[in-house]
Hints:
Blueprint: H1 20-38, H2 42-48, H3 68-78, H4 81-94, E1 98-111, E2 118-124, E3 131-135, H5 144-156, E4 163-165, H6 184-207, H7 216-225, E5 231-236, E6 246-259, E7 265-274, H8 282-302, E8 333-338, H9 357-360, H10 363-378, H11 394-400
Parallel strand pairs: 3-4, 7-8
Antiparallel strand pairs: 1-6, 2-3, 2-5, 6-7
Helix pairs in contact: 5-6
Amino acid sequence: MGFSVKTNEPGHSYVRSPGSLPGIFIMESAMEHIAKTLKKDVMEVRRINLYQAGQTSPCGQPLPHCNVTSLWEQLHETAAVAQRAAEVEAFNQSNRWKKRGISMVPLKYCVPWQGIFYHALISIYNGDGAIAITHGGVEVGQGIDTKVVQVAARELKVDMDLIKVKPTDCLTSPNSQWTGASVTSELCCMAVLECCKQLNERIDVVRQKMKPDYTWQELIRQCYNDGVDLCARYWMYPRHETPFKYCSYGACCSEVEVDVLTGETQILRSDVLYDCGVSTNPEIDIGQSEGAFVMGVGYWLTEHVVYDENTGENLYDGTWKYKPPTAKDIPIDFRVTLLPNAPNPLSVLRSKAVGEPPLIMSNSVLFAVKRAIEAARAEVGQDTFFPMDVPASVDQIQTLCLVDPSQFSLI
């Protein structure tokens, strides 16, 4: 039995990609340290350490469909990484007080299904043939309701305008799990898919007796007259023998410009290539990728929180001190591409999760900033490895650039 306690620390809550976001950053930082110590290109160190199809991860996850190497190579070519890296080096040689950096990172993100379960309930109404759906997820802007409607319309062969998603509650969706882990949308879609299969089995018996050119409303009216149950529910309770259901892959390249004197940063360009399987809704999935990436930009660069050591009070509780990313903080040139022709045989309608994985790749911005800082430190003979805490705010960036008034000259 749990009990409440009063502490001098604030309460914490899972948000997006908890654990994975800092964990993958730590591993990429290790790659940075290795490359710097060996005097190697960090992008090459990352490339030669990529997983290959058929390998197994340390946690025992088999990777039969791993395509991260091809994603890396494809983005390296389409984003002209080699050419831009040479241009960045030339820029840095010609500019003392502004420096640029470019960084490329891979992504392997394992998606769990086990232990995450949801209900779905579909009701079809006599008269106008309207369809109502409730499911165990919560719409929080990730597009779950839109995807659920799309799946139902596809399976029942009706117009999306006929379908409405009703608010979830514990009567229609008892014992459903929290909304999270990037899988709520696909698992609720899977539950809806199973409901549609039940309904189609019942409706098809009546459909075979209908005259040609019948309407959906006429079909449902006949089902009603024949006593067909027009309500179906399904409990999505996934199980799998491997630690995760499948893995998502991607690659990202970011280029930044840092003002050495002030520590201010502009993200000049970010290219994201993400394997989303066969996207259920490309507009939603690209929007989710963009939003996740920008959320990561705030995490790595701007969103600094300070708590009172004695009371735990959040001292940065307003935008005067707490700085989420705004329109001027996003990449000036922002290119997000979903990998084409990449069906996922292990998920609903061959798609993949999208909510959290693109957030991970935003650390490319932080490492690009570090490249720019390294260029500034090289100017004063300090081109050695250094740790960089996050968020890398303007004051930290400026300090790490090792600017000293003795370096200035009056003209």
